[in-house]
Amino acid sequence: MCIDTICPMKAFLIDQAIEEENFCNFESEREALRRHIKQKNHIVLYGPRNFGKTSLVKNIIGKEFKQTHPESFVFFADLIEVRSMEMLVSRLRAAFENSFRHSFPAKNLIQKTKRLLSALRPEINIDPLTGQPSLSITLSEQKHQDTIVFIFEMIQDLAKKMPSLIIIDEFQDIAIIPEAQAHFRAAFEITKDTPIILLGSKNHILSQIFANPNAPLASWGQDISMGKIPYTDYHLYIQERFSQNKNTISLETATELQDLVKRVPESINTLCQHIHINHENTDITLTIVNTALQTLLESKTSRFESYLAHFSDSEQKILIEISRIRIIEKPQSIAFIKKTGMTNKSVSRIIKKLWDNGVITKQKEGYELTDPLLEHYIRLYRI
Ligand SMILES: Nc1ncnc2c1ncn2[C@@H]1O[C@H](COP(=O)(O)OP(=O)(O)OP(=O)(O)O)[C@@H](O)[C@H]1O
Ligand SMILES: [Mg+2]
Q1: Fewer C-beta within 10 Å: the chain N or C terminus?
Q2: 3-class secondary structure per residue, 284-301
Q3: Of 55, 80, 234, 361, which is best to mutate to test ligand 1, by the most ligand atoms within 8 angstroms of its C-beta?
Q4: pLDDT in tens, 56-78
Q5: Which CATH number fits domain 303-381: 1.10.10.10, 3.30.420.60, 2.102.10.10, 3.40.50.150?
Q6: Fold identical between 26-225 and 303-381?
Q7: pTM (2 decimals)?
């Protein structure tokens, strides 16, 4: 048996950012990102929930950047659920320390940095002979160390000396902090010659930050969107893993399987993993796939039920109604409102809340549940 860290194994992984050996496709997005990084551009990466955004940027492109430039600095921050300026700054500060440690694993350096960041202004220098980073300390002229700008000045200190890359995940969560966007505008001005990739899992909130012409980050950066993985590529990916248990699957069945879970990579992996562990020497047919989906949902009953229990009765009613029709173009339509038995205002409020929280997603065709497995669960057990 192969242990992951020693010999990376091809598997159906879920609930985590994945590495190259388990990452399927997105070749054109990789190419676009590489090109933009080379040109030191600023990028906003859009993609639906669980489509591999974090894996692509952090584990593939970020790692590739470090391999191409052995002496480099990659700043990675995840801003999920930041709620205040204080939280935001402390998250960025922790991200700086973490990124610094990953980029320069020199002993004790990070502890020093940590101690110094709260009161002093460290300057990070690279020894021209050994290439080792070192710290020299000066008191900050203005006492502005608790600002986003201060952290970006430190990133800039490094960026002046070596190739650097800035990645900020779940960037849309700053939308809740009124003054944050202006601070980031000033911060990004400091690192304007460094490639920056911003990404997040709630596209509509992320795009609002850049679309509003009066907003501080109006028209900032260039957009890259992640599309769906071609059926044939995911078929090969599934077949490669199924063959470990001597199972086979035709392109036709693999296509139906992908459609069954709306081509969301994480849901495909969840379903395939369930099939993979329960079959050997089998030609996987559509009947097997459908049965596997039922048993998978059954095994997740308590997880789905405790998740649904977080929603009010009215919210659950709307989730059930959307699941029933799978996609709703106009939730304000009289027919939909009538089915929910609520007022127009309540429906609009709940739809906005579910959308902002990523529970439902808006596509060209309308609103739908973000998690295809939850939609199947509701259709099977709640309708
Ligand atoms: N290209 C891919 N190949 C195989 N599996 C993938 C791919 N992209 C995503 N996945 C699946 O999706 C899961 C989540 O990946 P990741 O966290 O990178 O997605 P994300 O788009 O950042 O998610 P979120 O919207 O929650 O931020 C992985 O654990 C894996 O199951
Ligand atoms: Mg992510």
Answers
A1: N
A2: ECHHHHHHHHHHHHHHCH
A3: 55
A4: 999 999 999 999 998 899 999 99
A5: 1.10.10.10
A6: no
A7: 0.90
